[in-house]
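Help! Submission page says 'invalid entity' but I think these are all valid:
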Amino acid sequence: MGVVIPLEDSKNKQASVKPLVDLTKADMERVNQLILSKAGSDVQMIPEVANHLISSGGKRLRPMLTLASASMFGFTGDAHVKLATSVEFMHTATLLHDDVVDESDLRRGKSTARMIWGNQASVLVGDFLLGQAFRMMVDVGSLDALDVLSTAASVIAEGEVLQLSVAKNMETTEDDYLSVIRAKTAALFAAAAEVGPIVAKTDKASRNALKSYGMNLGLAFQLVDDVLDYGGKAADLGKNVGDDFREGKITLPVILSYRRGTAEERSFWREAIEGGESSDQNLERALGLISRYGGLTDTIARAQHYGTIARDALAPLPESPWKAALLEIIDFCIDRVS
Amino acid sequence: MGVVIPLEDSKNKQASVKPLVDLTKADMERVNQLILSKAGSDVQMIPEVANHLISSGGKRLRPMLTLASASMFGFTGDAHVKLATSVEFMHTATLLHDDVVDESDLRRGKSTARMIWGNQASVLVGDFLLGQAFRMMVDVGSLDALDVLSTAASVIAEGEVLQLSVAKNMETTEDDYLSVIRAKTAALFAAAAEVGPIVAKTDKASRNALKSYGMNLGLAFQLVDDVLDYGGKAADLGKNVGDDFREGKITLPVILSYRRGTAEERSFWREAIEGGESSDQNLERALGLISRYGGLTDTIARAQHYGTIARDALAPLPESPWKAALLEIIDFCIDRVS
């Protein structure tokens, strides 16, 4: 009755972003040109600040999603390039504002823009990029795409405020946390993937498939990100282990460990997170508790759950190299922790 | 050869915002309803922060401009109400971000949102309102109006960054200063007035007339605002006299007084503005120099110049109560200092 899975069929190699990178290579060059052009301004500080972040080595996953989700339906033209650039600008604007809100010193191992040019420039250049993003969307002229992306802009900001209001509150539930990451991260992944089929003028079912894929991929991505903050390959990614802990940010590894802990341990968590007692010694203890209660492995299991939903969302679509590349991205996002 | 102007024909009473308020009263009630509804969110902090600023007693000049500039062409419907609300949200978002950038404690005599809820909430709720503004524009469905307002959003942010880069630089010229206020203030007035004729589907000439009216009204408005900061009715408006001075902001009264002063006086200005020596004693001296060199009266003369351009922009349009109300607003803005 047992089934022997041959080694070559099992997941015996790390999933890679490479197929998606290769397929979108030509269009991503157009995106990169457009980024440089639309982040330009006679006001010198604007391209300086924008390019600092834009050139800091992000994977540009979101614009690749937009390109792939249009190209897989045979779309050629430039609307998807403009929308992909808009998506990247929305993301960059969010990062600029996030670093101000979180008072972050480092992002991807480099000083944040606010450490170099100040909070003021970070807020205002973020606003500029958001304005430029909307101008490009208007230029494309699809009211459906505008609807999806402007709604995402509102939802992202709403999620960030929600995160602020649950910050340092240990009674945050897993559902509260999911509401936050659905809004602040997954909504943009969903919008990035949904505008592809919109400009490709495909059917509503395909549009919904890509939207669902993006949303669940985004949830998996953020869950893994929150795991990385407590270890794994954090150093490789230019992150400091324990940044979330020190900022009193409530993420799923903490929520699980808190809820599963003893009364004494819960009291420790409250002092550390709500009381701001985030010494290295307390971080050590937190890491120990997270490990004891399976905080990281179970967060990864949650990420796999959403990854499976993302995979099933694409199932009805015809096989193609694009679909295969998008499916591999799911594993790639999750494999970052393993 | 002399012409005697009878007293009743000369400008013998203060211009008033009342005709515009009366004409737009019914539609402004719809705007106010929409503001409340679109600033709403399940995330409690959002309506709290938004309503603090929205209910703080601004005149809502910008949305009234949009309503009037649509209604004067016979437009009825709800597109102008939605666009007027979008304009007010864009303005509110800018104020929230400005207060963070300027580190302001007071606005219109009340504590700023950032003093009550912190910089973080001010940045993020501003982002939310901007997102909601775009959603309403998309809902209206006019790509022309979207183009005008999204361009304004970029230009405003660009102007704010430009202001940041000329801040505390006494070599700022009147032209530099005009570039700043054209972008950060006048562009939104221009856009607010231009989208009226757009939704009313009137001719291009009328659209350009309203745009020019708005732009020049905005310049006059900001010039007068900068005069008010050095006196006049500043206290009535809940402003502290000398706020700009203390923040090292370069406005036209300062530019004129600096350029017209002696070498010793210019050295004083550099120490005060660039060196941040903004004691009450130095403010007293600055006020004395501004008075000696006609810094306020000549800034008001500049405002009158732009007011005249605004008036001439509307000249070709047929007479109507709407046109009369818009013309009176020019004098109302300038009369604030007299």
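Support: the input was valid. A stray whitespace character was the problem, and the output above is from the cleaned input. Residues 113-140 of chain B form the longest helix (28 residues).
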